[in-house]
Design goal:
Elements: H1 12-37, H2 40-54, H3 58-72, H4 76-84, H5 88-117, H6 121-154
Helix pairs in contact: 1-5, 1-6, 2-5, 3-5, 4-5
Protein name: Transmembrane protein
Amino acid sequence: MSARPLQRRWWVLPFALLLALQSWLWLHLRRGAEWLLAWPVWRRWGAGVMRWLRARTPFQAMLCFIVPVLLTNPPRLICVYLLAKGHWLASAVLYVTLKSLEFGSVAVVERACRPVLRTVRLYRRGYLFVARWRRWTRRQLRPWRQWWRLRCARL
């Protein structure tokens, strides 16, 4: 095997890494949000929210799925403003916080409403699209993982 796996296009590895990061964040932030809802303070409230989400119709479930995204997008303009003023760290912290809130809340809503959401054609298509991208990401990163394992084994 060569020193590094060959890639045909320069953008493949960064794009695949970005998709892998988003997939990783989706899984881990969902667990974090569920862990937070399991705290004694939130347990009763969280269980009520989950029951309420599970009882939604397909249209209502789609709205519940989209609302966290819509609520976290306008504050991202503050990130742009902070960047324009030269406050890189504050902008980065705010962006990461907003993205974490969005991922966590959307993941919890998706998990609660999954059976109902899968009856919606638009959601099903989006879900299959994301699944294809995740498979593509794993295929693109496989040679790099193998290269990294070989490199670490030699050390």
